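EI: anyone free to look at a 440-residue chain?
SC: sure, send it
EI:
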Amino acid sequence: MDRRMVLGLPLVGAVLAAMAHAQEHVALPPLAAPTKTRLVFPTDDTFWFKITNVLGNAEYGGPLLGEVLSAVSHIKEGDFESWYAAFNTMADRVAIEGESQLARGHKVSARDSLLRASYYYFTSEFFLHGNPKDPRIQRSYGLCVKYYQRAAALFDTPILPVEIPYDGKTLPGYWHRPVGDGQPRPTLILHTGFDGSAEGMHFGGARAAVERGYNALSFDGPGQYGPLHRDGLVFRPDWERVITPVVDYLSTRPDVDQNRIVYMGVSLGGVLAPRAAAFEHRIAAMVANDGMWDFGEVFLEAYPANRRAEIIEKIKAPSAPDLDQQLDAVLHGGSSGRWVFQHGMWAMGATSPRDFVRKALDFNVSNGVAEKIRCPTLVCLPEGDALSVSQAPVLYSHLTCKKSIMRFTVEEGAGAHCQIGAGRLAFARIFDWLDETLHS
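SC: here you go
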């Protein structure tokens, strides 16, 4: 997977590559995967990546291959409206079946159906963020949360919704536990990055933690799914201001081993988690999945090093009409840039495409921040993700704590961004590392 398939948001690197191309005729890199290897969407990198991500979540009870392929058969490449219609229709159908199963007392069947319906609602509105006031967004969000919570209550040990006090509001999350005996256990904090959800982290590490005897607290911070949709809270780069209230919350729970609180940030979380761990020293171990050094680099990598200062100056300038024109062309162009900037402007609270890029420059662990991390740290590096290949080693090289780097390969099927499609393989290695680290 090349730079156009990073951060869980497709083709971010290509956004500025396209700008550079318009200005300097720089050739774009080849497609992330040869089209002949793709089951669907042979010419749309964005939709292909997202479908791969969707199918990867089947490993922990998520979407069904047949249902997803049925939805895909109704989607036109690059057409956000057809994407919404296909997955919303599937979500409605599966939700109705799940409600019927529950009404008839079939709790396991209902749990599975409602869990899938929740994820299909999340998936349906993924590309609608060009108009955050679109009522379909709030409908899908509300039903995603509703059906996830209904499914969560049907697990043998129910998954409990929680609200974490934060800055006069609360952050939504879920408390996963192996059993409900109240005994203190090692506990994993985990969250997604630019475009996921606390509900989706069910498949992204929470259930893998429970299988191994950990508690897991999945949550959404500002800029992420819950706080963005319900409260309009946008991303902030000083992520320690987010994690410290989360650790404070865990400190009140008697079922948490306070000496074994571990933390994993996924995708953009690969820079948010290191930033937070640099200042929150109650964390016993941290996983950057995948390792990331500087979010702004995603937008600058298309330019030669000797032009970076000039481009940054333009990004930050009060006025830069030539750059604004290029960014506007990307915003209204292909599905990749269109989605990245539509979602990014909303999630970052940006007033323009250039303002979004300007805000992205603040998300990094440079200037001595990475060196402040004290806890043992695992940096994940899938070889098929060009951003991780370039940035994870930089993060690793700046760490002064006990550290490990974990490589995942294309050959073993785990080389994609955050090892999508190979979750059980990846979590086996990540949790083995956590187990060994906590017992060393």
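EI: The beta strands are 5-6, 9-10, 160-166, 169-176, 185-191, 215-219, 256-266, 285-289, 377-382, 403-408.
SC: 👍
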